[in-house]
Amino acid sequence: MTMKFTSKINIPSVNQQNGTLEPSKFPLLKNWNRETTIEKMLVGIKNEMIANKNLNQPADGDMY
């Protein structure tokens, strides 16, 4: 499974070169199984965004 952002975002689990979630830095993706849902993935991403809300973010409209 691959998850990718098209607009730039600065959170630790996202590869800043291509926007993909790095499985080694995002446990839900690393441990994907049949009980992992898209909802759980989105909640996990939201929680990471909240935990890193003070990081500088790219300008609106910047894309990978």
How does this model look, in words?
The chain has 64 residues and is mainly alpha-helical. It has a single domain (1-64), classed as Ubiquitin Conjugating Enzyme, CATH 3.10.110. The chain has two helices and no strands. It is globular. 11% of the residues are buried. The mean pLDDT is 93.
Write the layout of secondary structure elements.
Blueprint: H1 27-30, H2 38-51
Please provide a brief summary of the model.
By secondary structure, the protein is an all-alpha fold. The chain is built from two helices and no strands.
Give the tags.
64 residues; mainly alpha; Ubiquitin Conjugating Enzyme; 2 helices; 0% strand
CATH-defined topology: Ubiquitin Conjugating Enzyme
In one word, what is the shape? Answer: globular
**Estimated radius of gyration:** 12 Å
The counted number of beta strands is 0
The CATH superfamily is Ubiquitin Conjugating Enzyme
CATH class: Alpha Beta
Tell me which CATH architecture applies here. Roll
Count of domains:
1
Largest sheet: none
What is the number of helices? 2
- End-to-end distance: 19 Å
Average pLDDT confidence is: 93
Return the string of H and E elements: HH
Strand content: under 5%
Oligomeric state as shown: single chain
Regions with pLDDT < 50 over 5+ consecutive residues?
A: none
* Class computed from helices, strands and strand pairing: mainly alpha
- Summarize the amount of helix as a percent range: 25-40%
